[in-house]
Amino acid sequence: MKNIAVFGYNRLSFEAISRLDKELYQITVIDHDPIKAALARENGFETANIDFRSDDDLKLIGIGAHIDTLFCFFDTDSENVFLTLSARALDKELNIVAIVDSPESAEKLIAAGANKIIDPYEICGRKIHDMLKRPDINDIFDHTVFGRHDLHLAEVTIPENSYLENAHVAQLHLSSQYNLILIGIVNKQVSEQLHFVVEEFDRRLSVGDILVILGPSREIRAFKKDVENEFCKI
Amino acid sequence: MLAKLIVYCAYYLKSADWYRKAKLFFYDLLENSHSRKKKYFDATMIGLLILSVIFLIYDIEHEDSKMGGYFELAILMVFIVEYCLRGWIYSDTYKVIIEEYEKALYLNLDFNLLGVFRKAFVRDMEYITSPFAIIDILAILPSYRPLAILRIFIIFRLFKLFRYSNSAKLFADALASKRFELMTLLIFTCFLVFIASVSIYMFEYQATNSGIHNLFDAFYWTIVTLATVGFGDITPQTTGGRWVTIFLILASLGVLSFFTSILIAAFSEKMLSVRETRTYAELDRYDNFIIICGFGRVGQEIARHLHNDRQKFLIIDRVPARIELAKKRGYLAIESDASNNEVLINAGICRGASAILCITGDDVINVYVTLTSRHLNKNLRIISRANRHDNVNKLYQAGADNVIRPFEIAGLLAAEFVGQPVAFEAISGILHNQTETVMESVLVSEKSPLDNQQIGQLDLQQRKLTLLGVISDNPIHLKHKNKYQVKQQHFYFNPEVDFILRHGDMLVLLGRKYGIDHFRDQVEQRRLFSRKPK
Fold first, then answer.
1. A234 part of a folded domain
2. Which residues cross the membrane (chain B) (predicted)?
3. Is CATH 3.30.70.1450 what the domain over B436-530 is classified as, yes or no?
């Protein structure tokens, strides 16, 4: 179970929270506007009434302790920067996701210690551009990966003693064995960069590598289970 | 009998294809401001005019130049033909005849040929007395040599230049818009001139060495002084005359500055609409452009991408600051209200636009613009932005093809990022072309070597391409599993090796951009070479 603190209750945070699996995530919503906080409670979310300007209050809800991820979804950039800065000081490992309103604030948020910046307008602009340029591919993704159909992206980390350790990428045959498509591999020890599988057929997998796969959820579960099972053989 | 023949001719012309085509051709050439032919024609005519004036001036100095004579004759013929053609396309006489004839037939009256001619004549007079037609005639007249006095009309030939460029019309329009102010100023100036002329005349008439001997001298001096020219050929000699001069100079400064400010105001107001017209004129040259309504953050982002793609687009926004920003970035932009039918029509929604994006921050405007656009053009692609969830259906009802919700997408990405950061970065990298690896579709066209081929035979692995799936609306594939409904088509994810491709299918490939391009090129080449000669 992961703990997420969501600061700022608005359309964006509502969408984000609704997308998260309630069984995997413990979510707390914080908003300094009592009306919005009440609305969040009405929608069935756990809320906390604290002042984000005070470090003691932040500690009180568990930042620096059990909170793993922080969403800074306030409407104004200055508040998000302040919150990011305070939270980063309390917890070096915290995963901070912040939204940005004006593009010049993005750098400030990164400097304040945010892990991921989300610019809704930029994303929307890119998305519309995609709709114009590549309508087919855009439709597929909207209906499958981001939509209701059962086709998902997943990442699978290769654990120790897995049968995949030292296996060649070319030996995997995920598409015939599992009905999955392997898109790429990330070697965390070397870099965060994703290596697309098409160029890495002769590569040997090692422990800690992350496989990015695409497929139906049942197949993903089956594959994950097999990867962790050390007695499974190719 | 004659009447019958004329009516017959009129009906013949009405049904004659060549006649209609010829008329359309000359309309495009002479009057249709959207046509490219007219632009070339206008440029040629301007060139001819300038040449003809040069020859006429040359003629004044060199009495018997033969070359100039022939050239003049040729130009004259062109002018006369142009004049007649313009008269021809100005009205459709055969339509008048048919209308009158049918009216007479319906009312059981005699067909009155004289009445028809009178009507046609009135129409022709309308053309002949129109300002431009008069200028045309005046441009033809100076060539009539026996009447040397007509040479003075050479200047009118230069007026003809105005016909071929919009600048004169612009100047006149600007002045006309300030009619009231100019009139006030003119009346004031007249009083001033009158008072000053009479006063200086009274003071200076009897003075010794005075240059003013009659009222015209006084008037001449007043105008020269009023215009701040002051030649100095006539100077006031008496104290009274000098006081008048001081008074006139001070007053004339006011008049001139007032006049200048009126002109400047008129032109700066006019410039806005001129720029707009220029924007529209530039759009005329393009097909397949995109109209962006709203240049907020989303609009700016799209414009940036489209600009990189060298895709033509037009921005419409009501906020002057945003339009200024757009222009600074070199985009075509109009400061206007997109919910106005006229604005959209001028922007080319029915002519060259392929898509319209309604992406303002206000859902009310987005719905309204969507509705207007759909009403104006049934086949246009409309993408609209819904800022509130409840408005998505309204936008679809209004006729949008796609509705996008910025906050939903951003929220979705935030959620994806928390769950699977690596996969998320990977897919967003591919989707947004940030990596060298891209996802693209390749169409299986008719007679393509891919047609009727099994997926296993494509040898995609050798080409370093990954096949994600096939998009198809062909019912023959429905037996395969892993299909996902996407609009009217199906997406077959991870198809088996024995999946047989049919024409119309689309392969969704993942690979390097040039890898996919190379594959597409090879397929196309093989298709062309395998085509059997008929």
1. no
2. 40-58, 70-89, 132-159, 180-203, 218-236, 243-267
3. yes
- In B, minimum Cα distance to A100 occurs at B410
Of B298, B420, B441, the CB nearest to A137: B441
Residues of B in contact with A13 (CB under 8 A): 411
Of A99, A154, A184, nearest to B410 by CB-CB distance is A99
Q: Does domain B179-269 have CATH number 1.10.287.70?
A: yes
Contact B344, B336 (CB under 8 A): no
Q: For residue B436, which of B521, B511, B507, B508 has the smallest C-alpha distance? A: B511
Which chain B residues touch A125 with a CB distance below 8 Å?
Answer: 297-302, 304-305
CATH superfamily entry for domain B287-408: NAD(P)-binding Rossmann-like Domain (3.40.50.720)
Q: Which two tokens stand for residue B178?
A: 């300030």
Dist CA A100 CA A72 (whole Å): 9
Q: How far is B340 from chain A (nearest CA, A)?
A: 23
Partner A contacted by B482 (CB < 8 A): yes
Side chain identity, residue B503: H
How many of the other CB atoms lie within 10 Å of CB of A190?
A: 10
Flag whether residue B380 sits within 8 Å of chain A, measured between CB atoms: no
Tens of pLDDT along B144-202? 655 556 566 666 667 777 767 666 677 778 888 888 999 999 999 999 999 999 999 99
Report how far residue B105's alpha carbon sits from residue B96's, in angstroms, rounded to the nearest whole number: 14
Mean of all residue pLDDT scores within chain A = 83
Contact between A168 and A202 under an 8 Å Cβ cutoff? The reply is: yes
Q: Out of A121, A143, A198, whose CB is closest to B465?
A: A198
- CA of B186 vs chain A CAs: smallest distance (Å): 54
Give the pLDDT score at B67: 66
Question: Which residues make beta-bridge pairs with A168?
Answer: A204
Nearest CB to B484: which of A13, A17, A151?
Answer: A151
- Tell me, what's the ipTM? 0.83
**A32 to chain B nearest CA, in Å?**
20
Sign, Cα dihedral of B210, B211, B214, B215: negative
